[in-house]
Amino acid sequence: MNDYFTGENNMKLSFTTTIKSIGVAALAIYASVGISSADTLLERAKEGKSIRIGFTNEVPLAYPGTTGEPDGFVNVYVLNVLKKMGYTNIEPVQTDWGGLIPGLEADRFDIITAGMYVLKQRCENVLFAEPVAEVSDVMIVPKGNPKAIQNYTDVAASGAKMATCVGCNTIANAQADGVKEENIVPLSQMEDMLIAVTSGRSDAAAGPYFTMLNFVQNSQGAVELTDPTKMPEVSRNWNGIVFRKGDADFVKAFNEAQASYLGSPEMLEAMAPYGYSKVHIPTRKLDWICQNR
Predict the structure, then answer these.
(1) Which phi-psi region, left, alpha or beta, contains residue 220 (left: φ > 0; alpha: ψ -120 to 50)?
(2) Vertex 115, ends 289 and 154: CA angle to 5°?
(3) CATH tag, 2-133+237-292
(4) Calpha distance 42→251 (Å, rounded)
(5) Could you tell me the CA-to-CA distances from 255 to 28, 81, 137, 215, 285 in Å, in that order?
(6) How do the domains of the chain map onto residue ranges?
(7) Do the Cβ atoms of 140 and 197 come closer than 8 Å?
(8) Is the pTM value of this prediction over 0.90?
(9) Is the fold of 2-133+237-292 the same as that of 136-235?
(10) Which DSSP helix (H) or strand (E) runs through 139?
(11) Which residues contact 67 (CB under 8 A, 6 or more apart)?
């Protein structure tokens, strides 16, 4: 990842201080650098103005690196596609998961690079580029899986507590399979899901495959991953890059640029350190996903 930001690549990134919550002060900063909401993203990018990418702290999807640079496979993917488009002036903005779409719509950043799932309801409010990865939700449970939890139905039947992230599709999926609202523990930070399980606050936690796998790898054997094939079909999802409705021209250009990059040897090599492989290359197009998810 760090090689991407060397002088050899002529990267001219302007990094902001990590933003845990974005408010009036942040809006004032954006105003001071002359960002006008009246201009489209494509117009501003062509003028050389910074492209602001919004993401959370979710390893390995998207997170701030050791020196504040945007890291994670979705961030790296987007940076590489933008570079192919000729854009290297990037400004990263970190926020909570629940603040991603509101922040995009409020013009606090231009692109959501958090690896957000493409869902029908989201497609009605924002624009997605063609998906970058196909994955399944999965759960982490304490080592040995004492309550024999493999899916939402098991959570409902056992009356277990299940942690997940605020604004995530896992909440609706769990409730659809009978999990009671009072048994769902909503968390604003993804990384808090591992803490919830290891501390006993919840009996399981549900979330994206890459994130949950990372929790297992860093839990020192405290938790294990459930079998993703035991999850309901609705848990199969596609990670997408998100834009405002008014930036359709930029999305079109982005899709054209990523068409030759997605699944290429260059892309797979860059994504490999984050656990991405050929099995994660999307098998569905955006139109189908927006209609069926």
Answers:
(1) left
(2) 75
(3) 3.40.190.10
(4) 9
(5) 32, 9, 25, 32, 12
(6) 2-133+237-292, 136-235
(7) yes
(8) no
(9) yes
(10) strand 133-142
(11) none
φ/ψ of 163, rounded to 5, equals: -90, 150
In angstroms, the CA 194 to CA 73 distance is 21
Nearest to 58 by CA among 42, 79, 80, 73: 73
- Residue 163: how many other CB atoms lie within 10 Å: 24
Rg, Å, the chain Cα set: 19
The 3-state DSSP class for residue 145 equals coil
Do 226 and 141 meet the contact criterion of CB atoms below 8 Å apart? yes
DSSP 58: B
Ordered per-residue pLDDT tens for the chain, 293 residues: 333 333 333 333 433 333 333 333 333 333 334 344 458 999 999 999 999 999 998 889 999 998 889 999 999 999 999 999 999 999 999 998 889 999 999 999 999 999 999 999 999 999 999 999 998 889 999 999 999 999 999 999 999 999 999 888 899 999 999 999 999 999 988 889 999 999 999 999 999 888 899 899 999 999 999 998 899 888 889 999 999 999 999 999 999 999 999 999 999 999 999 989 998 999 999 999 999 98
Residue 10 corresponds to which amino acid? Answer: N
CATH code for the domain defined by 136-235: 3.40.190.10
Q: What torsion do the CA atoms of 244, 33, 16, 195 make, to the nearest 10 degrees?
A: -40
> What are the residues whose beta carbons fall under 8 Å from the beta carbon of 28, sequence distance 6 or more?
none
DSSP strand pairing (51-55 vs 90-94) = parallel
The amino acid occupying position 156 is A
Q: How far apart are CA 109 and CA 126, in angstroms?
A: 13
Residues 103/52, Cβ–Cβ less than 8 Å:
no
Of 213, 210, 232, 235, give the one whose Cα is nearest residue 224. Answer: 213
Q: Using an 8 Å Cβ cutoff, are 258 and 130 in contact? A: yes
